């Protein structure tokens, strides 16, 4: 029997099918979508709330007559009955997480939290990225415990994104000149994930002392340079696992780990799952990627 598309229904029509959710928020969809080339849609409306997190690629999100460029790390939000669309741009494959939810007949203070915003900020290398991935993984597992975890992750995402909106992404606390330097530092770190942090090089690049750089970086992005490096390594590992046939050992080396076991320990600590578990929970139903007929782990042992 064909299961109904819960995300497309009116909230009250979903309740009988959501046995693992006994109270709001009710999550009716949480999955990863790997867009085909030249994929797009326009003029779509839902009867529920939706969050999208961009894992990779670039696109254009349209809502209320405005077009917003989106890329890796961006979170965007649309409300019930808002007409919206999305266009995947050429280049890297566009991959995103979609979470659809509602609060049944209870009011949700969306405007109090998000002040009319549709673009909620960029969260690559941030805990929000991990929360989206874990929500998808837990949603695929039945049971009240997993349902509760999905709800707590969704609420954590809403809390953090609303904080970012309320604080204007904290950019007002940093001068325009300093922010440009910090973005340069951030890009430098992300481009050299296999090299680790070189404090002297980052001081030279930014013109800031190391301690001041750490403080300003955290003020601007919410995390320290070292925390960003770790989350960027995790994000890159996920991207490589999703988009390449590299072995887990090769993935570990590309993100700065010569020891696959040290990499696996770090990945599990930061995501709550091994890279093997991450891949197995997402490939089957959500990605539909046909990998070459080669051992994904490349004979290097457990990658998580």
Automatic annotation (TrEMBL):
Record-linked SMART domains: HTH_ARAC
Ranges that cross the membrane: none
InterPro entries listed in its UniProt record: AraC-bd, AraC_XylS_family_regulators, Homeodomain-like_sf, HTH-like, HTH_AraC, HTH_AraC-typ_CS, RmlC-like_jellyroll
PROSITE patterns cross-referenced by the UniProt entry: HTH_ARAC_FAMILY_1 (PS00041), HTH_ARAC_FAMILY_2 (PS01124)
Residue intervals of the HTH araC/xylS-type domain: 183-281
Keywords recorded for this protein, A-Z: Activator, DNA-binding, Transcription, Transcription regulation
Highest taxon above the source species: Bacteria
Pfam family, one: AraC_binding
Stated name of the protein: Helix-turn-helix transcriptional regulator
Source species: Paenibacillus artemisiicola
């Amino acid at each position: 029997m064909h299961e109904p598309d819960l995300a497309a229904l009116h909230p009250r029509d979903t309740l009988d099918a959501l046995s693992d959710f006994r109270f709001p928020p009710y999550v009716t969809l949480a999955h990863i979508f790997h867009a085909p080339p030249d994929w797009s849609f326009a003029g779509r409306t839902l009867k529920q709330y939706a969050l999208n997190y961009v894992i990779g690629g670039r696109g254009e999100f349209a809502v209320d007559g405005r077009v917003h460029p989106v890329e890796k790390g961006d979170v965007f939000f649309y409300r019930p009955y808002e007409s919206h669309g999305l266009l995947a741009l050429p280049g890297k494959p566009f991959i995103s997480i979609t979470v659809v939810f509602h609060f049944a007949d209870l009011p949700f203070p969306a405007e109090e939290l998000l002040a009319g915003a549709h673009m909620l900020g960029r969260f690559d290398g941030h805990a929000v990225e991990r929360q989206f991935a874990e929500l998808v993984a837990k949603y695929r597992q039945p049971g009240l415990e997993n349902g509760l975890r999905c709800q707590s992750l969704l609420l954590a995402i809403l809390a953090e994104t609303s904080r970012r909106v309320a604080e204007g992404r904290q950019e007002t606390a940093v001068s325009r000149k300093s922010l440009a330097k910090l973005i340069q530092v951030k890009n430098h770190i992300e481009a050299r994930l296999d090299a680790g942090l070189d404090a002297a090089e980052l001081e030279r690049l930014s013109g800031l002392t190391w301690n001041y750089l750490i403080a300003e970086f955290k003020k601007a992005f919410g995390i320290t340079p070292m925390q960003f490096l770790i989350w960027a390594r995790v994000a890159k590992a996920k991207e490589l696992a999703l988009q390449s046939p590299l072995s887990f050992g090769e993935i570990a080396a590309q993100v700065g780990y010569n020891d696959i076991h040290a990499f696996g320990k770090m990945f599990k600590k930061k995501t709550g799952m091994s890279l093997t578990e991450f891949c197995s929970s997402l490939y089957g139903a959500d990605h539909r990627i046909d990998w070459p007929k080669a051992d994904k782990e490349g004979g290097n042992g457990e990658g998580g």
